Amino acid sequence: MKKKVLYEGKAKIVYETDEPDRLILFFKDTASAFDGEKKAYIQGKGVLNCQISSLIFQILGEKGIKTHFIKQLSESEMLVWRAERFLVEVVVRNIGAGSVVKRLGIEEGKVFDEPLLELFYKNDELHDPMICEEHVKVLGLVPSEAIPLMKETALKVNEILKDFFASHGITLVDFKLEFGRLPDGRIAVVDEITPDSMRLWDIETGEKLDKDRFRYDLGDLLEGYTKVLKKIKES
């Protein structure tokens, strides 16, 4: 049963439950970009993201990836294990897009010979800077033994999702993952995996189906997310 609000972020509200080790994630109908400088209320976004994230977590679980996902409770609510979240985002890039294009001066759409893995410090005041493993250790952001596991898991997730999306007509350009320690002590993928946190391009047309539609006014965000959900639900 949902109790008091534990935390409210840009895209979700986290509620405590009667069971101390379980939380409810409520997906909000809000969109934001550029460190919150651009914001909008988009009715229906939360339902789409909850359904997409739930489906992806189920797929990862079936492939042996440990996550905090327990089950989808409603159209916009997900039951998850409480986790001690690490302040590090792991980003995996298969194709050049977004910040890496600006930072490295490469052409958007450049296909990398192998996945590029980057780490970012989750810190709003510092605007989530990119960091290296040495920074992670110096700042004590995650247990030292967790870093190799997080990187290995992120690359496994990449292979699973690349194949899955490709089989449904979508190119997985890049995505970010967050990790944390579950009540049983194991390290797992937490938070969400949605078009908010991935770049997804239509294989045939190259149409962008992710949050870049909102960031750069490329088209209706709901239309893009709806296409993603429809495609990945196809057998």
Q: Describe the global form.
A: globular
Number of strands: 13
Q: Helix content range of the residues, please?
A: 25-40%
Helices and strands: which structural class? alpha+beta
N-to-C span: 33 Å
Largest sheet: 6 strands, antiparallel
Radius of gyration: 17 Å
Unreliable spans: none
What's the tally of helices?
6
Q: SSE order in H/E notation?
A: EEEEEHEEEHEEHHEEEHH
Mean pLDDT: 96
Report the portion of residues in β strands: 35-45%
Give a verbal description of the structure.
By secondary structure, the chain is an alpha+beta fold. The protein has six helices and 13 strands. It has helices spanning 45-62, 99-104, 133-139, 146-166, 212-215, 221-233; strands spanning 2-8, 12-17, 22-27, 30-33, 38-41, 69-74, 77-81, 84-95, 111-121, 130-131, 170-181, 187-190, 198-202. Strands 8, 9, 10, 11, 12 and 13 form a six-stranded antiparallel sheet that branches. A five-stranded antiparallel sheet has the order 1-2-3-7-6, covered by helices on one side. The mean pLDDT is 96.
Condensed summary:
The chain is of the alpha+beta class.
Which helices and strands, and how do they pair?
Blueprint (H helix, E strand, L loop, with lengths): L1 E7 L3 E6 L4 E6 L2 E4 L4 E4 L3 H18 L6 E6 L2 E5 L2 E12 L3 H6 L6 E11 L8 E2 L1 H7 L6 H21 L3 E12 L5 E4 L7 E5 L9 H4 L5 H13 L2
Antiparallel strand pairs: 1-2, 2-3, 3-7, 4-5, 6-7, 8-9, 8-11, 9-10, 11-12, 11-13
Question: What key phrases describe this protein's structure?
Answer:
235 residues; alpha+beta; five-stranded antiparallel sheet; 29% helix; globular
